[in-house]
Backbone:
């Protein structure tokens, strides 16, 4: 009986204890409320500006735009520029399908090496190999500004002939008297010489003037050698003097144009072999600095008229009230027409013949025969 009472008391105690446990549970503690957070740079951002966001959700807030992953476009809808070229929908788009230098018209390529290069630096790219200043060679490149600092483009005249790329230029490949047409050679001995004095130079050894003929005995020759002919005349084809030393101080008289006009052509030296009065001794007359100029009766008449005015003391042209010179001009206008006279005055117009002009001729020593021509 005592055991039964003991068990009843134990059960009652457990029941009371369970009830106490049920009513004695600890209340739930609410989570703390977020009021803000910090960016990766340490700047505090309040909750309403995204300070409590997490992960990629933060990308919607301005303060977190620069977070890693926020600038990475994952779809075609947000791509920009060259990033779009990885999407199939952009296949064939000019921005994505262009090649080489043609892409440089798009701003997206402006910073690429090919599109940002300048001058000769661009020649390293295959796309520019055929451009004029990349494909030129030697002196031909000097017309391009990109080569302005190149030593081969800074040389002038004969000094350029030391460079390999100029070896075939006419100025550098000419020989002997042929070089004298270039002003760079005008002061060289073989270009300044005239007549017999040129025979000391190798280039003149085979010319008629320099081929030595037998010298006659003094008693074979006439006491007075012949004069070298000057100017045209019956049966004479000798050049006229470049400078006849007349009062007007004009040159190349009879040529159409002022003095010796630019239309005149440079010629080789001319030689004429003349016999003396006995016919046993011969002399070679050499005419140097020869020019061939267009001539016309109208030009010759007009020049003669001007020279006559100068000989009378008038040194003023028609436009400066030189009446004598005006009469010469009017004579040309009335006979040949203003158009022809104007053309002749400028070295142009129709001509009837070519007249030779030269420096005063030099006469050789007496020879037994004329040199071979």
Residues:
């Amino acid at each position: 009986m005592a055991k039964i009472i003991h068990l009843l008391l134990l059960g009652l105690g457990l029941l009371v204890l369970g009830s106490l446990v049920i009513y004695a549970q600890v209340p739930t503690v609410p989570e703390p409320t977020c009021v803000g957070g910090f960016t990766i740079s340490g700047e505090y951002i309040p909750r309403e500006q995204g300070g409590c966001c997490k992960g990629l959700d933060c990308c919607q807030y301005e303060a977190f735009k620069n977070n890693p992953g926020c600038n990475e476009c994952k779809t075609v809808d947000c791509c920009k520029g060259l990033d779009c070229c990885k999407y199939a929908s952009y296949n064939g788009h000019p921005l994505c399908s262009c090649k080489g230098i043609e892409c440089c018209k798009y701003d997206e390529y402006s910073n690429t090496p090919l599109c940002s290069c300048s001058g000769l630096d661009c020649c390293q790219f295959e796309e520019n190999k055929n451009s004029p200043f990349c494909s030129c060679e030697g002196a031909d490149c000097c017309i391009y500004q990109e080569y302005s600092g190149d030593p081969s483009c800074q040389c002038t005249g004969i000094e350029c002939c030391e460079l390999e790329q100029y070896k075939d230029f006419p100025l550098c490949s000419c020989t002997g008297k042929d070089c004298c047409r270039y002003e760079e050679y005008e002061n060289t001995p073989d270009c300044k010489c005239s007549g017999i004095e040129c025979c000391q130079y190798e280039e003149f050894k085979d010319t008629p003037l320099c081929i030595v003929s037998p010298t006659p005995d003094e008693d074979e020759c006439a006491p007075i050698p012949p004069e070298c002919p000057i100017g045209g005349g019956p049966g004479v084809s000798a050049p006229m003097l470049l400078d006849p030393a007349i009062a007007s101080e004009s040159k190349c008289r009879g040529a159409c144009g002022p003095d010796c006009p630019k239309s005149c052509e440079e010629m080789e030296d001319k030689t004429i072999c003349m016999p003396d009065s006995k016919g046993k001794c011969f002399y070679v007359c050499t005419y140097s600095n020869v020019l061939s100029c267009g001539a016309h009766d109208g030009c010759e008449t007009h020049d003669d008229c001007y020279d006559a005015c100068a000989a009378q003391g008038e040194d003023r042209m028609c436009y400066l009230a030189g009446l004598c010179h005006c009469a010469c001009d009017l004579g040309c206008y009335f006979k040949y027409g203003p158009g022809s006279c104007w053309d002749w005055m400028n070295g142009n117009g129709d001509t009837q013949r070519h007249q030779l002009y030269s420096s005063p001729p030099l006469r050789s020593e007496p020879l037994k025969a004329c040199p071979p021509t």
Notes: The chain has ten helices and eleven strands. Residues 2-23 form the longest helix (22 residues). Residues 20-24 have pLDDT under 50 and may be disordered. The longest strand covers residues 270-275.
